[in-house]
Design goal:
The structure is a single chain. The chain is mostly helical. It is 78% helix and 0% strand. The chain is built from six helices and no strands. The radius of gyration is 18 Å and the shape is flat.
Length: 97
């Protein structure tokens, strides 16, 4: 018997509605971050905590549990991305030694 799901593309096409929802969810979160809008952040958390999609609800609940840090990440111009990137490079170098 030949499988109907022969390629990753087949699997993707079957799951398009989920991927569209996923893309929209993260676009909404990115809009909140770019606009530095806490009200959009709260709207995102509320919408996706009650979305009925387990993965979205889990992610939104995690944001809600650590809402102070998430608020700072959205509203602040400060970032520790450079330090985190340096730490990652250090760990990778250590792993190769």
């Amino acid at each position: 018997m030949v499988s109907l799901l022969n390629t990753t593309a087949d699997i993707f096409l079957i799951n398009i509605p989920f991927f569209i929802k996923l893309t929209n969810a993260f676009a909404n979160l990115e809009i909140a971050r770019v606009k530095k809008s806490l009200s959009l952040l709260y709207l995102f958390i509320d919408r996706y905590k009650n979305s009925g999609i387990k993965e979205f609800a889990t992610f939104a609940s995690g944001l809600d549990k650590d809402v102070d840090a998430v608020e700072n990440a959205v509203a602040s111009d400060l970032s520790n991305g450079f330090v985190e990137g340096t730490n990652t490079k250090t760990v990778i170098c250590q792993a190769h030694v």
